[in-house]
Write a structure and sequence with these properties.
The complex is a heterodimer of chains A (111) and B (110).
Chain A (H helix, E strand, L loop, with lengths): L4 E3 L2 E4 L5 E6 L6 E7 L5 E8 L2 E5 L7 E4 L6 E5 L8 E8 L4 E3 L3 E5 L1
Parallel strand pairs in A: 2-11
Antiparallel strand pairs in A: 1-3, 3-8, 4-5, 4-9, 5-6, 7-8, 9-10, 9-11
Chain B lengths: L2 E3 L4 E5 L4 E3 L2 E3 L5 E7 L6 E5 L10 E2 L10 E3 L8 E8 L8 E2 L3 E6 L1
Parallel strand pairs in B: 2-11
Antiparallel strand pairs in B: 1-4, 3-8, 5-6, 5-9, 7-8, 9-10, 9-11
Classes of the chains: A mainly beta (111), B mainly beta (110).
Chain lengths: 111, 110
């Protein structure tokens, strides 16, 4: 059964550094999402992406964040200058019809 | 703005006993409600959605618009039900984001 994959599983970075989190959605899906979950808190929506553009973003998704679908398979989330409070689990999801399928997540630790 | 509330962070139930995980929402329109489950070391996966009105792994959930609730129930808990359960809401066509509750960790006591 096809699955959403994410790399790396764990990323450690220094404050102020740029990070790129990568996702490979399920191949025939057209809608893509990023969510994050700070430890002990709820899963929060960051951004949705369709037809090569952002369709919605939350207030968390400020100018430090960007998303890209650089080729036909990858979907990336870039954080330009990481802050301590960006430490969280980041989940990618993709959708064809009604159901969003989630990846296993990338744990980002900002030191 | 919409909100999902799961009042119990932790819930322990004996094997064979009934389970009820509570979920309340606030939204003035007609949302879609979902239950997602995350087993240990696994990804979030959809358990059930209210529009399907189906039973998955013995779990059911009924949308009560009057009480704005979508509680998850199972008559007889099994050890493999131990997991994190998240209630989620989606509003309107075109607004596809999911709004999650904080989750309930369900532990089934053998």
């Amino acid at each position: 059964e096809p699955e959403v994959t994410q790399t790396p599983s764990h990323q450690v970075t220094q404050m102020g550094q740029e990070v790129i989190l990568r996702c490979v959605p399920i191949s025939n899906h057209l809608y893509f999402y990023w969510y994050r979950q700070i430890l002990g808190q709820k899963v929060e929506f960051l951004v949705s992406f369709y037809n090569n553009e952002i369709s919605e973003k939350s207030e968390i998704f400020d100018d430090q964040f960007s998303v890209e679908r650089p080729d036909g398979s990858n979907f990336t989330l870039k954080i330009r200058s990481t802050k301590l409070e960006d430490s969280a689990m980041y989940f990618c999801a993709s959708r064809e019809l009604l159901e969003q399928f989630f990846g296993p997540g990338t744990r980002l630790t900002v030191l | 703005a919409q909100r999902v509330t799961q009042p119990e962070k932790l819930l322990s139930v004996f094997k064979g006993a009934p389970v009820e995980l509570k979920c309340n929402y606030s939204y003035s329109g007609s949302p879609e409600l979902f239950w997602y489950v995350q087993y240990s070391r696994q990804r979030l996966q959809l358990l059930l959605r209210h529009i399907s009105r189906e039973s998955i792994k013995g779990f059911t959930a009924d949308l009560n618009k009057g009480e704005t609730s979508f509680h998850l129930k199972k008559p007889f808990a099994q050890e493999e039900d131990s997991a994190m359960y998240y209630c989620a809401l989606r509003v309107g066509f075109g607004n596809e984001k999911l709004t999650f509750g904080t989750g309930t960790r369900l532990t089934i006591i053998p």
